Amino acid sequence: MHATLPHLAKTDFPDLKRDQLETLQVNLGYLCNQSCLHCHVNAGPKRKEIMHRETIDDIIRFLAKHKIKKLDLTGGAPELNPDFRYLVSEAVKLGVHVIDRCNLTVLHEPGQKDTADFLAQHKVEVVASLPCYLEENVDGQRGEGVFHSSVEAIRLLNKTGYGITGSGLELNLMYNPVGAHLPPAQCQLEQDYKRELKQRYGIVFNNLYTLTNMPIKRFGSTLISKGEFDDYMSLLKGAYKQDNLETVMCRSLVSVDWQGYLFDCDFNQMLELPLTEKGRKMHLNDITEDNMYARDIIIADHCYGCTAGQGSSCGGALHE
Q: Do 256 and 24 touch, CB atoms closer than 8 A?
């Protein structure tokens, strides 16, 4: 795999400073039942990195001490961590809003038969990746049979109440482009998704989020192999919008890797650009009341992926 950081490190991206911390995004490990082309984590079935109970207990203590509003769980497939349910249950007891970034097909894996019911019981917000409403596009990006498996998983979630108006169970889908181009307008695409998925498969969801493919890890390496990396970076830079700087996710979120170390975002985590203090990597337990606010955010050229066009974040477009 081609290293992408050497292509990104020299940057003219504007300086950014951190605001108040609202969201703790935790990567529970790189183990996943899929190996998607666009995956900036390079996750897959053979990855061994996984968060252990000791670090998960650190997470729970941190949530209680700092009164964090949101816990955003990602991976790999976060549900494959043996302590996933323990962490969710303890966080919910603290009144924390929990988000599970689910690839949908994991709900069919061994040991996951009742995961949908567990998520519903704890009112976990599900953000599920589905890069298109067309079978050929999804299977082309994620593997044969993934689309059908994803549709069946949404049906399962719908049966528990997810995506149903008035249920209080939120199911949001995540779109990313199949290729080296920017996402279309989120609002219009959401209408298309809702219409096509309802008419073709009888499934429903709440909101659609669009996410720009980041030129790092597996996707970035593929761009380099095809000789398309520079063109894609030109696309991102050409679509840069300064207004997006006000609401990029790194200003109110901190990313925690499977060992408990801190990063400004999940993308910086994958590029191995950690937060540091006195020359060493910062751990979750190193955060104090005053060593995060107004801190400089570590930037590189991949940051243009969050500020291009309508903007991009783990919560979808930054503006329409």
A: yes
